[in-house]
Structure formats: structure tokens, C-alpha cells
Predict the 3D structure of the following.
Amino acid sequence: MKSITINGSQRESVGKKSTKALRNAGQVPCVIYGGDKPLHFSAPELAFSKLVYTASAHTVVITLDNGEKYNAIMQDIQFHPVTDRILHIDFYQIFDNKAITMEIPVQLTGSSAGVLNGGTLRRPYRKLRVKAIPSKLPDAIEIDITPLKIGSKLYITELENEDYTFLHPENTVVCQVRRSRLAIVDEEEEEEGEETAEGATAEGGADSPAAEGAQE
């Protein structure tokens, strides 16, 4: 997974007055949890643009002015309700040998056969929660939707990977193609339907014992 470096300064004072002064100066108050004790620091608001305003998932290297570095992931963020400026960010410190949970974006590739025939693609999950050690976290969960026909569903069990574990129920539908009024029935589906109908006729046709009994 790609990493973003944030250069910040450790905060000695964490009161409301100092926090307000930081925000007025264009700084964002932050906290790193997960270590021996919470660590307070601040960084320019612009430093978080590539981390916050993107659909991609990233780990973070926080470099402080005292030379210390911390590997972390963003855990929570608060925005101003009117201006949408960043008010506060919580980070969680990560370690190379300790598994963490993170939401990874889903990227669809290919062109669904069902969609090309007029079906509607539904994708209830834009991100999926996975658990893994930091070095095994993927940048994205790529899904090839080319084989999906009208009525097809892709379950999360079909995306299993040795590097990470999905934290969703096994019956979770990641995406599906639903029939629409303008949908064109796939030729293979038509053939399967015809074969089924022919089989039913052969079993219960006029020449069968059941049919003869009915006629008598």
C-alpha cells in the first residue's frame, strides 16, 4: 500500500485556546493513538489534501520536528459543518508485525455482459473492510465484472485472498447485475430456457404414461 508523509510539530499545549490558535494559523490539531500514550501534534491543513480528498487508501508516515517518525493510518476526521475545513484528525499507530483493520476501496474493471445487454449494475459497497499486517494491505480490491450476466451476483467469498481477510459475512453481495425493462435476454440464457422447457415437455408430454392416464 502507498504511503503519504506528513510533516508536523509536536504539541505541548492541548487546551482550547491553543487549539483555536492553531486552526487560525492554518494548522490541524491531531492525535496519534495506539502507542504507549496518545501523542499530540499539528500540521498544515494543505499537508492532508492527498490523504483526505481521495478515494484511495493510504498509510501515513508522520515525521515530527524532533526527528521522531510514526507509521499510522487515519482513524477519524472532523470537518467544520459550514466551511468543511478540517478541524481534527485521529491517527492510529501501526506496527509491521501487528494486523490492522482498514477500509479498502473497490475498483471495478472490464465491461459486464449483463450491463451491455441492458441490465443495471448495483454495487452496494464502495469500500470493503479487510484485516492484514500493513505490508499485505492492498491499494484497492480489483474486481473484473466482465463475466457478470443479468441476474448474476458476486459474493465476497469469491474475492478471498491469502494476504488479507475480509471482515464481512460470507453472504455479502459485492456487486450484481439486475434485470431492467430494456434488458436483452442473453442468447445462452435463451438456449438454457429452451432446453429446460423441452425437457419438461418430454417428461410430461402426450405420449407419457401420466398424459395417457389423464386422457382416459
About this structure: Residues 3-94 form a domain with the Ribosomal Protein L25; Chain P fold (CATH 2.40.240.10). The chain has two domains: 3-94, 101-187. Residues 112 and 146 are 4 Å apart (CA to CA).
